[in-house]
Amino acid sequence: MLKLVHPYLPILVHCHFPFTKENEYIQRLISLLEEYLMSEAEISESLGSLYKYAQQLDKAEEYYRQALSLAPENPFYLNNLAFVLIDSETNIEEGLELVDQALDSIPDHYVILDTKGWGLYKQGKYTEALEILEKCWELKPIYNHLIYTHLEEVSNTLSKKQG
């Protein structure tokens, strides 16, 4: 049997199975992911993404931390946790430490640079944030609306500060 994992499987499952019977559907999702031979770390990361898109950020953080504990060197797991911590303003400092670790592995990855720039913006370091987000924008292979909105927000904030 051919095993393919769609990268947006958590989102698709969420769209079809609302959180009214959350535990039942999460167990179904875990079973599906296990059928696709995903590791425990990959399953935890997928659950973190599912909760992130459902705006249940405490649970997203919990599952991202679990994924990271199982694969502590994975730069994408570092970045996912960092983004939740930064975007929710739960712990911007820790988020920036995590994103710096991810950048040590992949220094020019546009998604990780977006997280770094967004974290610097949240700290009020607008000029530094803009430089990183502009680099991120140049490196992206395709249009990314989240990066665009981050870049616009930082640019607008800097314009207001200077004007």
Describe, in plain words, how this protein is organized in 3D:
The protein has 163 residues and is an all-alpha fold. The protein folds into 2 domains: 1-72; 74-163, Serine Threonine Protein Phosphatase 5, Tetratricopeptide repeat (Alpha Horseshoe), CATH 1.25.40.10. 75% of the residues lie in helices and 0% in strands. The chain contains 9 helices and no strands. It is elongated, with a radius of gyration of 17 Å. The chain starts with 8 loop residues before the first helix and ends with a helix. The relative contact order is 0.08.
The number of distinct helices, counting runs of at least 4 residues, comes to 9
Helical residue percent band: over 70%
Which percent range describes the beta-strand content? under 5%
How many whole angstroms does the radius of gyration measure?
17 Å
The structural class is mainly alpha
How would you state the average pLDDT, rounded?
86
Summarize the structure.
This protein has 163 residues and is mainly α. The protein contains 9 helices and no strands. The protein is 75% helix and 0% strand.
Helices and strands in order:
Layout: H1 9-16, H2 22-35, H3 40-53, H4 57-70, H5 75-87, H6 92-105, H7 110-122, H8 126-139, H9 145-162
Helix pairs in contact: 1-3, 3-4, 4-5, 5-6, 5-7, 6-7, 7-8, 8-9
